[in-house]
UniProtKB/TrEMBL annotation, chain A:
It comes from the Bacteria. Residues 19-125 form the Aldehyde oxidase/xanthine dehydrogenase a/b hammerhead domain. GO terms for molecular function: iron ion binding; oxidoreductase activity. PANTHER family: ALDEHYDE OXIDASE 1-RELATED (PTHR11908:SF132), XANTHINE DEHYDROGENASE (PTHR11908). Keywords: Molybdenum, Oxidoreductase. This is CO/xanthine dehydrogenase Mo-binding subunit. InterPro entries: Ald_Oxase/Xan_DH_a/b, Ald_Oxase/Xan_DH_a/b_sf, Ald_Oxase/xanthine_DH-like, AldOxase/xan_DH_MoCoBD1, AldOxase/xan_DH_MoCoBD2, AldOxase/xan_DH_Mopterin-bd_sf. It comes from Amycolatopsis endophytica. Gene3D superfamilies: Aldehyde oxidase/xanthine dehydrogenase, a/b hammerhead, Aldehyde oxidase/xanthine dehydrogenase, molybdopterin binding domain.
UniProtKB/TrEMBL annotation, chain B:
SUPFAM superfamilies: 2Fe-2S ferredoxin-like, CO dehydrogenase ISP C-domain like. Residues 1-77 form the 2Fe-2S ferredoxin-type domain. PROSITE patterns: 2FE2S_FER_2. It comes from the Bacteria. Pathway: Alkaloid degradation; nicotine degradation. The keyword Ribosomal protein does not apply. The keyword Mitochondrion does not apply. Its EC number is 1.2.7.4. The lineage of its organism: Bacteria, Bacillati, Actinomycetota, Actinomycetes, Pseudonocardiales. This is Carbon-monoxide dehydrogenase small subunit. Pfam families: Fer2, Fer2_2. Keywords: 2Fe-2S, Iron, Iron-sulfur, Metal-binding, Oxidoreductase. GO terms for molecular function: 2 iron, 2 sulfur cluster binding; anaerobic carbon-monoxide dehydrogenase activity; metal ion binding.
Length: 745, 156
């Protein structure tokens, strides 16, 4: 019987629950014996000219070295069209920017020595917001002459909205949030006698890190080995290889010492890349029967101080129309630089922003024409017979059942009863208002136009070792891949070892992000296993003196179909005779398009503004499910993190560019009492774009839940005259929106 | 100063700086790395251990304060490999962990929670774990794990 599709407890967990994982800070390998400790001195001001004097620090106890930009002999590296210094070189551009690197013999000497690095900050005018960047009064990179460092301006023509009975426009902020995985960034490195650098790094993709670090150091990729130990979460922010990794590799060479580095949480919150940070203006027009005729989306991305990742606003544009067919669509994108922490991927990376914009717009439109939000969505859905669907912004959706997903959720939630309860409360003047928020979404996964590697060897004892280019950090991919291989090869899971994250073992790979791992990494191993089976089949046929076509593989034994008495040949019997290995690269770059519908139910105390998330009912369709345990886990996590953005999370800066949410005492992670039990609705619509029929699930629930919860809070207040308020919907913001609405009325 | 702490039944005596935190003593001097550091404000709970049976955040306790006391970490919770603590078993069965970084602290806090309230409601579990943050699971399955370990029904 196939184990695929059954709930299998993870093979990863035993170590994690008994001795804990081996995260980078836990490494006790020989190469790191006697390693020095590293700390970056970071700018406490947002924009200033800097001069650094390290002399006092060099005399501090235990100090091995202090390095500044003046010491570095590395070629400059580009962030978009500008140069991002490895260590601040004359100017700092955000609070948290690395200014110097301190190495000490003991951990506790680091902070003492860092304090003694004398940095003179001569303040410059600060650009702390998108609005400030757009005025152009202060330009961060004078050579560029503008703060707008990317502009994809679409053709706008107001004639698109001619014939609409209703047209409305709104600017929706998708606030800056901190990915902040529970394990902060960390690395360890050592140069071997063979002249190679080994870098242990908490990353989502060892191979891309190797390429980036080698390029930064000006050495061949073959001279760098990156090893990924257990990784305590990434959420997209560990995709990129930050300048710190290169500086550490350089410092290890220069000092001749192995180095350990781990940042503090406060450092993490200001110096690991942030996510979202978009200002999106939507214009939506249509008829009073609910038909949307035209939609315009203008995306402005806050790129932070260095435009490291410019694909985010483009991806938002690509997914602008979501699950709807709109006759006329116009989009544009711009990215501006500000004196804030650089922005990069965070769980969903561009797609949550698109979904938040269109789903808020649909609710605004529904409110304007006085139609139930569910009904407005239904009128405009792309129908199942329209797939594959070419969107006006250039995406080609594979498969989808959008109306079905919505209907399943509404039924599971008891939507009609909830609306009746809402009406009853409103009539009774209940100060605790009920709000219902919908979001229907489609997202793009594995959309990076790259494939993934997979390699399989059947060992002489019949056990299997598989190497994947994916690089899991909590997703449970080892178990999922072992299940697939166990099913396909007929080898028990405990005889299958999945390896990843060491560039010497897996030299060619892309890694884990964009919900790509199962569909690309899984398909690669499926293909490699197919090849190994074909190799073995030919050999087994020889031994059994049968035609290969007559053989079947059952429970790890090749036998002649319909002739059990003729005996069989096991994997071990074949593998001890010959090398059974297949090494493949899967993927033509075709992405898949998971979709779903979420309904959030909130209670809002209209006297205090307090919001309580009561229920969240979610349908997330990512095709066939390999392991329901891991699949549900990914959805739970996404729901929690997405709801947190709607309710709580924001990375705030004051007008001088000082972050005001730079510790976990200020930055609100959502905690257990603030979330309800999740109600999951199942649906499986396969794709034809990979060997498994699967789509990605890592980000889906984050994408749907944020606008669902956001819409629910606005819905709770709608009878009091509130049409919109920006996220996070904190008590203060809700209370302010109510106060303004009461004044207006 | 010299500090002696009984960790998981074994006394560890080391000369340390006065300012040494218990979490660093456990990790560096005792070499037990399951206990993790996730923040610097006592907000996340990843470093939770039992100090004389009570759960504490070991990043906010000086090693000197634990001198002469007994500490239990995740590694001290189970006996032989096959002899897991009910919470360790339940976290695995209920998929109460993903990246695993919060897990040692989450399990230790749950031990303490069940000690004080052997049959908690789901809401009591949520309230009891408020000081332990998880970024991966959305908490649903962590609540299930504690319910499972307390012999109660779970909601899958």
């Amino acid at each position: 019987m196939s184990i695929v599709g059954t709930r299998v407890v993870r093979i990863e967990d035993h170590q994690l629950i008994t001795r804990g994982g081996t995260y980078v800070e836990d490494l006790r390998v020989e190469a790191l014996t006697g390693a020095v400790h590293a700390m970056f001195v970071r700018s406490p001001v947002a924009h200033a000219r800097v001069t650094v004097d390290a002399s006092a620090a060099l005399d501090a106890p235990g100090v091995v070295a202090v390095y500044t930009a003046a010491d570095l002999d590395l070629a400059p590296h580009k962030a978009g069209p500008v140069v991002e210094p490895w260590l601040a070189d004359g100017v700092v551009r955000y609070v948290g920017e690395p200014v110097a690197l301190v190495l000490t013999e003991e951990r506790y000497q680091l902070a003492d020595a860092a304090e003694l690095v004398d940095v003179d900050y001569d303040p410059l005018d600060v650009v702390a917001s998108i609005d400030a960047a757009l005025t152009g009064e202060t330009v961060l990179f004078p050579d560029q002459g503008t703060n707008v460092l990317q502009a994809g301006d679409g053709e706008f023509d107001d004639a698109a909205f001619a014939g609409c009975e209703v047209v409305l426009s709104h600017t929706i902020l998708n606030q800056r949030v901190a990915p902040a995985p529970l394990e902060v960034r960390g690395a360890a490195c050592a140069w071997g006698e063979d002249g190679r650098l080994t870098l242990w790094l908490s990353t989502q993709n060892a191979q891309i890190s190797r390429a980036t670090v080698a390029k930064g150091l000006g050495v061949e990729a073959a001279d760098v080995r990156v090893v990924t130990p257990d990784v305590g979460g990434g959420f997209g922010a560990k995709i990129g290889t930050d300048p710190e990794s290169v500086v550490l590799g350089w410092a290890s060479k220069r000092s001749g010492r192995a180095i350990r580095w781990v940042e503090t949480r406060s450092e993490n919150l200001v110096s690991m890349t942030h996510g979202r940070a978009q200002q999106n203006t939507v214009t939506i027009g249509g008829r009073r029967d609910g038909t949307v005729l035209a939609f315009r989306l203008e995306v402005v991305q806050d790129a932070g101080a260095y435009p490291r990742t410019m694909f985010l606003p483009t991806l938002t544009e690509l997914m602008a129309t979501g699950v709807y067919h709109f006759p006329k669509v116009e989009t544009s994108n711009r990215a501006v630089v500000t004196n804030t922490t650089p922005i990069a991927a965070y769980r969903g990376a561009g797609r949550p922003e698109a979904t938040a914009a269109i789903e808020r717009a649909m609710d605004l439109f529904a409110a304007e024409i006085g139609m139930d939000p569910a009904e407005v969505r239904r009128v405009n859905f792309i129908r199942p017979d329209e797939f594959p669907y070419s969107s006006p912004t250039g995406a080609t959706y594979d498969t989808g059942e959008y109306a079905k997903a919505l209907d399943q959720v509404l039924e599971a939630a008891g939507y009609a009863d909830l609306r009746a309860e809402q009406a009853r409360r409103r009539e009774a003047g209940d100060p605790v208002a009920l709000g219902l928020g919908l979001a229907t979404y489609v997202e793009i996964t594995g959309g990076d136009s790259g494939g993934e590697s997979g390699k399989i060897t059947v060992n002489p004892d019949g056990s299997v070792t598989a190497w994947t280019g994916s690089s899991p950090h909590g997703q449970g991919l080892d178990s999922t891949l072992a299940m697939l291989l166990s099913d396909q090869l007929g080898v028990p899971m405990d005889r299958i070892t999945i390896r990843h994250g060491d560039t010497d073992e897996v030299p060619r790979a892309i890694g884990t992000f964009g919900s790509r791992s199962l569909q690309l990494g899984g398909s690669a191993l499926r293909q490699a296993a197919d090849q190994v089976i074909e190799q073995a089949r030919a050999l087994a046929a020889d031994r059994l003196e049968a035609s290969p076509d007559d053989l079947e593989l059952s429970e790890g034994v090749f036998g002649v179909r319909g002739a059990p008495a003729s005996g069989g040949v096991t994997w071990a019997q074949i593998a001890e005779q010959t090398d059974l290995t297949a090494d493949v690269w899967f993927g033509d770059g075709s992405p898949t398009f998971p979709f779903g519908a979420h309904l959030a139910v909130v209670e809002v105390d209209t006297l205090t503004g307090k919001v309580v998330l009561k229920r969240i009912i979610a349908c997330d369709d990512a095709g066939p499910v390999v392991n329901p345990l891991a699949f549900q886990g990914q959805r739970h996590g996404g729901l929690g993190q997405g709801a947190a953005q709607a309710l709580l999370e924001v990375m705030n800066y004051d007008a001088d560019g000082n972050p005001t949410t730079a510790t976990l005492a200020d930055y609100s992670f959502i905690s257990a009492p603030e979330l309800p039990d999740f109600e999951l609705v199942d649906s499986e619509t396969p794709t034809t774009r990979n060997l498994l029929g699967v789509k990605g699930i890592g980000e889906a629930a984050t994408i749907g839940s944020t606008p669902a919860v956001h819409n629910a809070v606005v819905d709770a207040l709608s009878h009091l005259g509130v049409r919109h308020l920006d996220m996070p919907t904190t008590p203060l913001r809700v209370w302010q929106a109510l106060t303004e609405a009461r004044k207006a009325n | 100063m010299k500090v002696s702490i009984e960790i998981n039944g074994t006394t560890v005596s080391e000369e340390v700086e006065d300012r040494t935190l218990l979490v660093h003593f456990v990790r560096e001097q005792a070499g037990l790395t399951a206990t993790n550091i996730g923040c610097d404000t006592t907000s996340c709970g990843a470093c939770t251990v039992l100090l004389d049976g009570e759960s504490v955040k070991s990043c906010t306790v000086l090693a000197a304060q634990a001198d002469g006391h007994a500490v239990t970490t995740l590694e001290g919770l189970h006996g032989d490999e096959g002899d897991l603590h009910p919470l360790q078993r339940a976290f695995r069965e209920e998929h109460g962990l993903q990246c695993g970084f919060c897990t040692p602290g989450m399990i230790m806090a749950s031990v303490s929670l069940l000690e004080g309230n052997p049959k908690p409601t789901r809401q009591e579990v949520r309230d009891g774990l408020e000081g332990n943050l998880c970024r991966c699971t959305g908490y649903h399955n962590i609540v299930n794990a504690v319910m499972n370990a307390s012999g109660q029904e779970v909601q899958r």
